[in-house]
Amino acid sequence: MPHDDHDTIDGDVYVSPRHLAHSTAVSDPGLDPLRDLGWDLHHDHLGNAYLTAPDGKVRLGYLPEGDDDGLWRINAYKDAFGPPAWGVCFNDSAPTEFVTAFTTALAEAYRQGPDRYLARPLAGSTDRDPFQAVDPLINRGWCFDRPDLRTFAITAPDGLATLEYTTGDLDPAIELETRDARWHLWAGTSSARPYWYATASTDTPAALLRAVTEAVADPAPLPRWRDDTSSYVKDHAQTSPIHPPSPPTPTPLDVRRAAASRRPAALPAASVPRWSTTSRHALPGQRR
User: Fold this and answer.
1) pLDDT tens digit string along 147-179?
2) What segments bear the compositional bias annotation Basic and acidic residues (predicted)?
3) For the sheet containing 86-91, what is the strand order?
C-alpha cells in the first residue's frame, strides 16, 4: 500500500490494478511539473488551459472544452514555428497519475535541453531504444501478442490493458490528429471502446514513454472516492478502504513520559500529617 499521510490522500478507497482507475478530473498535478519551470500559462474564453515553454518548443494543452475527448495534448517542436516533432495525447478518462508521470519526465528532459526532449527513439541505443517503453510492463508479467501483421501488442495479466506498437510508415499528421499513432496505450477489452487511452507519435522520446509505462506497471493502487464511480471501472476494479495509519510505536522516552504522567502527585507540604501531643500513639518519652 502507498505510504501517503492519510490526511493528504484524496480518496476513501484504493483502486487496483491502477490501469482500472480513471481521471481524477483535477488538472493541477499534471500541470505543476511544467508550471514549476516557469512556463507561461494562459486560458482561452472557454476555460481551456495552455502551457508554453520559454523557447516555444514544447506546448501543452489541457482541453476540457476541446473538439474531441483528447483532454491532454502535448507537442514538441524543433522549430517553434514549424510542425510538431512529436505529439502525445491522453483522453479525458486517462488516470491523472499517468499524465503526471509524463509531464514530470518531460520537465526533467526540458531542463536537460533539446537533445533530451527531442531525442528520437533509436533501436539498439543505450538510452533511446524504444524497447525501454515496453520493459517495465514485461517486468510486471504483461504478455506479448501479435494482433495483426503490422502490430505488436503487450497485454496486462488481467487482459484489461494493452500497449500497441504499429510498424511501418505512418503519416505524421494522422499520428497527431487521430488515435492511429505509433504507440497506443489503452484499457478495456476493445480498443474501439476503451475505458481510457493515450497515444504517442513516432518520434516521442523513449524516456518519456517509459515514464508512463512505469506508472502503469506500478503495483501500488490509486486512491479514489468510492461514490465517484466515474473515477474507476466499477465492474472490474478491486477497491479496498483507506484506513488511517496505525499510531506509531512508542519510543522508550514516550514510555517514561507516559509513566510519569500517571504517577500520583505529591501532597502539598501543609497537608502532610505530623505527630502531635494529641496523637493516639505518642513517641517514647512524650506526654499523652
Assistant:
1) 899 999 999 999 999 999 999 999 999 999 999
2) 224-237
3) 40-43, 49-52, 58-62, 70-76, 86-91, 196-200, 183-187, 161-166, 151-155, 143-148
* Rounded Cα–Cα distance for residues 184 and 136 (Å): 16
Instruction: Assess contact for 250 and 258: CB atoms under 8 A.
Output: yes
Q: What are the tens digits of pLDDT across the range 5-44?
A: 445 888 999 999 999 999 998 999 999 999 999 999 999 9
Dist. CA 97–CA 187, nearest whole Å: 15
Classify residue 205 by burial, with Cβ atoms within 10 Å: 0-12, 13-18, 19+: buried
Q: Which residue has the cell 500497449?
A: 163
Q: How far apart are CA 164 and CA 169, in angstroms?
A: 15
**Cell representation of residue 174:** 494522422
Quote the Cα angle for 81-87-91, to 5°. Answer: 130
Residue whose C-alpha cell reads 502525445 in the numeric block: 88
Could you write out the DSSP letters of every residue in the chain? Answer: -----GGG---SEEEESGGGB---S--HHHHHHHHTTT-EEEE-TTS-EEEE-TTSSEEEEE-TTSSSSEEEEEEE-SSTTS--SEEEEEETTS-HHHHHHHHHHHHHHHHH-HHHHT----TT-TTT-GGGGTHHHHTTT-EEEEEETTEEEEE-TTSSEEEEEE-S---HHHHHHSS-SSEEEEESS-TTS-SEEEEE-TTS-HHHHHHHHHHHH--S-EEE-TT-GGGB-TTT-EEEE-PPPPPPPPPHHHHHHHHHHHSPPPPPGGGS----TT-SSPPTT---
Residues 234/240/243/246 CA torsion (nearest 10 deg) = -160
- Which bin fits 285, alpha (ψ -120 to 50), beta or left (φ > 0)? left
Which residue in the block uniquely carries the three cell numbers 484499457? 187
